Amino acid sequence: MPVASEHTSALVSRPPLAAPWEMLTNTRDRLRAELRYKIDMRLQELTGSPDARMRWTEDEYARLVVLRHEAKIKWPADVPFLNLSDIRGGVRPLEQLREHWNTGVLCLERATAEDLVKAARDPRTVHPNPDLISKRPAPAAGVVVESSALYPGTLAFLGVHPTSTQPAAVESILGKRSRDQRIDVKRPRVRPVTNPLNLPLRRRKRGVTSRRYVFEPESEIEDFSDAEERARKRARYLCTDDPIEEFL
Known about the structure:
30% of the residues lie in helices and 9% in strands. The strands form 2 sheets. The chain has a 3-stranded antiparallel beta sheet, with no helix packed on it. The protein has helices spanning 27-47, 58-69, 92-103, 113-121, 167-174, 218-222, 228-234; strands spanning 71-74, 107-110, 145-150, 157-163, 246-247.
């Protein structure tokens, strides 16, 4: 008589899951992901908030890290405190940050009462590395282009319409002006989408019938400003809000 044998299932130990950054192939991406993960996890452990994230701008670091979570980061003096994607220099500065993290030079700690007062008064005073704050480049000066304004339909010459990529460049010549264009052009109007009760449809409306653009007469341009110099400059232009065509 055959004896029934009991089959015991052996427990197979699974290998531990790989860290999120180890799946990346690019070295720079892998270093950035590793540093972000470790810094955010340490910040969550320190504050007890699962939504805590490191902020990299001057204002958000003071407001969302120091003031909200009462934490601060000790940052090495030879690397600028920026978003890890904006740090220049390739892989070398990221490797330095990882080494500083492993040795404890780069770490997180609780903010003191003095830090909270400084952060509320001036965010720059609690910046982790104020000596290497990146300066924002000044906006380039706009170049004014005097393009021709043509009348809609006939394309008759109306005058010169100064345009520029920087609005301040045009305002220095013409001054700040209010727009005369209608504000309801291209605005959506409520219409029935379905008609389940088979009701008679509403009469179709024609919509806006007035002119889309309003042009200023030349007589009003000279009286726009009290300054003689600005009035003399404005006399050269026939200003339009949105010319149909512009030719250089």
